[in-house]
Amino acid sequence: MLKDIFNKKRHYATIAQPPRRQERRPAATADQIPEGLFNKCPTCGALLMSKELQKHAHTCPSCGHHFPVGAQVRIELTLDAGSFVEEDAGVTSVNPLAFPEYEAKLAKAQQATALLEGAVTGCGTIGGFQARIGVMDPRFIMGSMGSAVGEKLTRAMERACAERVPLVLFTASGGARMQEGVLSLMQMAKTSVALERMHEAGVLFVTVITHPTTGGVSASFASLGDIILAEPGAMFGFAGRRVIEQTIRQTLPDDFQTAEFVLKHGMIDKVVHRMDLRDTLTSILRMHAAGGVESGR
Question: What is the pLDDT of residue 294?
């Protein structure tokens, strides 16, 4: 009997014990999340997985914000797969003015972008149509235009003119590269002269304004396209907003210098979402090849 009572007490004690708590794993900290896995949209604040962002051509599917992309990504988004052949890859700037720490700045940009200079040029096909292409990379010293960038773009223009092949140029720049002084400013005139020869030869030149396109680039070849497209929200202007407001002593509109603003004022032809840009360029090249568009400003 005592044995029965003991077994019952043990049974009661067993069923009276509270359930064992499951151990909770601590939440992952920021340094434990793989770098580059997520991107936060600076416009709407949406948290986007990198793979999802790539599916939308590096644009936010929620608000349409266009993330900046490097030259290689731009080429992959625009040209037919495997068609691009790079040219003048070895052209790079030196330090003609012995500007302090300029070599170190160039080396840092080269390491960060895997490029020797801030522009990539070459040839390929878009929708099956042959084209010359130039892409300025905003990651390389803010896409500034030095003598090497101007030389590479000028060579692309000269080849397009000689071969009578359309040139598509993606612009992204903070302006002339001050470390090269007047040699940088000379690129404005050099590229403009090369484009005038293209114009005289009737060769199509299409510019695509990406964020930001300012300074000497906006005041030269970026504004000389036979057809000028722009990505949504891209800044396109010469001087900065603050400088202009201080000069004219007036408050400018919130959308001042955006692609939408300059479209409204007749400075560009169309604002095109990045997802639609390749198809738009294909249509332009098709019309030009069929003789439906005459090159001319």
Answer: 44
For residue 101, give the amino acid letter.
E
Which bin fits 57, alpha (ψ -120 to 50), beta or left (φ > 0)?
A: left
Q: What is the pTM of this model?
A: 0.84
Whose tokens are 């793979």? That residue is 51
Is the pLDDT at 102 greater than 50? The verdict is yes
Q: Measure the N-to-C terminal CA separation of the chain; round to a whole number of Å.
A: 110
- What whole-number distance in Å separates Cα of residue 112 and Cα of residue 191? 27
pLDDT, one tens digit per residue, over 169-211 is 999 999 999 999 999 999 999 999 999 999 999 999 999 999 9
**Distance (Å, whole) CA 206 – CA 228:** 6
Q: Is 99 exposed, middle or buried (0-12, 13-18, 19+ CB in 10 A)?
A: middle
Length, in residues, of the chain: 297
**Which domains are delineated in the chain?**
69-289 (3.90.226.10)
pLDDT at 18: 53
User: Where do runs of H (alpha helix) occur along 145-273?
Assistant: 147-163, 181-201, 215-218, 241-248, 259-264
Is residue 145 within 8 A of residue 173, CB to CB? The reply is: yes
3-state SS, residue 2: helix
Give me the numbers of helices (H) and strands (E) for the chain, helices first please. 10, 9
Provide CB contacts within 8 A for 205, sequence distance 6+: 157, 160, 166, 167, 169, 195, 198, 199, 224, 225, 226, 295
On the 0-12 / 13-18 / 19+ scale of CB atoms within 10 A, 30 is exposed
Cα 136 to Cα 114: distance, rounded to the nearest angstrom:
14
Structure tokens at 221: 């070849």
